[in-house]
Amino acid sequence: MSKFAKMALVLSAATAMPMAVGAPAAHAAGLISIIVNDPANPYWMAEGNIAASEAKKLGYTANVGAHKGDTNVESNLIDTAITNHSVAIILDPANASGSIGAVRKAVSAHIPVFLVNAEINQSGLAKAQLVSNNAQGAALGAQEWIKRVGEKGNYAELLGSPSDNNAATRSNGYETVLTQYPDLHKVASQVANWDRTQGHDKMQSMLQAHPNIVGLISGNDEMALGAIAALKETGKLASIKVGGFDGSPDAVSAIKAGELQYTVLQPVAIFSKKAVDQADAFLKNGKTGASAEKQLYDCVIIDRDNVSHYTAPFTLSD
């Protein structure tokens, strides 16, 4: 099976409303509470919807809440999950260090926690941590960026939230590859917190200081799309090439339009489903079925050559 086929997972839930609550059923095996970051971002919306769909397929009720990166909101959502007698929690943590207390609180209430997308800086609390292989994905993205931008010139970078380990992992992965090219120089970098509007504004700021950059590499698609909007406003999109990370529907549209060079597809459709499957296994027999707590899922490139294989949000097929 090819790497594209492995990533094919067409779930109608990925296009459902993100905050839907599962309808109770007489045979329901209990409530699984799913907590994501911000469903305004299509990546996190798909994450929550896919997990909820899988929970319902397995006979559970499910609800989806969002902390929007706020650890206080996250803590309150964990409290609600405990009060509602959740049998398991699927959590995309708000903060690598700041979410440890919330996870510990759930574990103390004898509710197993399964982390998706982002990790916490402590092992042994969550039953599983299922995340994209961000180092592999970043290296893949940087290699693709070189193909599109070339091996010399000044460039800029947009980084995600510093509280999310994924931001540093991706940036370090880019750095490992791009520093191998002595005629490439990173002249600007800005934190845009995974946000499209901030990506737009930070791109404007970097352009004012460095109008002659040849490319931008971004930690996610939302920031990249914001940067593209800024480049279009200044008439520089033709001369400054942009690469993204996530595999969002809007990024795919931008690739088709010739505005985004590529995106690194995160297999969120796979690990969101797997987290629920492992929760189900643990609830039934005390084991997740995985060989380790931390599980990495490799990313793939979507570009103009294979974009036609994009079949549903965050999925590729042969």
From TrEMBL:
Keyword flag Transit peptide: no
Example GO molecular function: carbohydrate binding
Entries under InterPro entries matching the protein: Peripla_BP_I, SBP_2_dom
Coiled coil (residue ranges): none
Leader sequence segment: 1-28
Location of this chain's protein in the cell: Cell envelope
Domain Periplasmic binding protein: 32-287
A Pfam family that the UniProt record links to this protein: Peripla_BP_4
Keyword Hydrolase appears in the UniProt entry: no
Domain of life: Bacteria
Stored Gene3D superfamilies: 3.40.50.2300
Family under the similarity heading: Belongs to the bacterial solute-binding protein 2 family.
UniProt-recorded name of the protein: Periplasmic binding protein/LacI transcriptional regulator
Lineage: Bacteria, Pseudomonadati, Pseudomonadota, Alphaproteobacteria, Acetobacterales
